[in-house]
Write a structure and sequence with these properties.
With 359 residues, the chain is of the alpha/beta class. It is 42% helix and 9% strand.
Amino acid sequence: MLKLIGRLLLFLPIFLGMMFVSYRVDPSGLFWGRGFERMASEYMLEGMYIAGYERLDGRALNEVFAKNIPQAPEILVTGSSRSMMIDSSFAPDRTLYNAANVGADRFDFMTAYYIFGKENKDPQVIVMGLDAWLFNDGEDNIDKRSNKELYYEFIGEELGVENTSYEKPNPYEKYEALIDPSYFQGSVKYYFKDKSADVQPEPVPIEEIYEKNEVIKAPDGSIIYDKKFRTNPPEIVDIIVNEEARYDPLRLGNFDGVSPEYKELFEKFVQYLLEKDIKIVFYLPPYHQVMFDKIVAGGDYYGGMFETEEYLIDIADKYGITVCGSYNPQTAGVTNADFYDSIHARPEAVKRMLGDAIL
């Protein structure tokens, strides 16, 4: 018996080595995330800017980044593309990560925090980019890219909200891959695979980041819009805005009010963060005046937007939260010259609205 145990122990280093290879190479992204986003995250953690942002799954990238960043960012930004220009220059003496997502819906809104929280990397400050459509609970306002499973895990595990859409997973299930010989074989094949033909994230020298005609992902998670979009002359911006104003504002159509259920859930989220001593800042991204006038003229059809702002101000008053910006550009103190298009304010204008609230 002892001889048998001794022989088995001889194979232990080989077995552990196989487990290590499977864990580090991780061809399916069970532990470190998928290839493209994993590589992009590694570049960002080294302080590099990345081209090819449109080819990235921004939500997957944020999850990989949250797993791999050594310690929590002091400031975390959530929201949609209307908040994605908030970068480290807004708080130069503090670490910041912008986890906002293009087209973010109400699922993204909470999971953008949870990917850090579940890694025990709570920020000190959360800047919530609060688009009114987050409170429009129509099915047409759900983005297919958002991680619903992660959302239901969060509200079930952390907020204590009963729901039938979430089944608690076995946290150890993925580790079975480490003792699976086929996963090890796949890891070896992937490691030696010729990846030169694969789509790869492209690091951009810092001196070129404002010259590229594609969106650049910064190491702090924020984005730099392409040069053409950023440098359109006012007359072109006017054309863009008036064309966009021909259609319903994004996800605000047939929005007659905030559901009581979602108000309750949002307040639970706010209470949850405050109990963790996380400072909250509400940022309400404004609309270009032409688009805002269309919303006003739409009356009850867009009325939920105005109710949302009133509700958020009430919640802020109740919990001592600072509110920056407003959906109304005049209230927010911005002009038409402060916009790239009908919904995206320029970084300088956003910085004025936030002031020193996040410092």
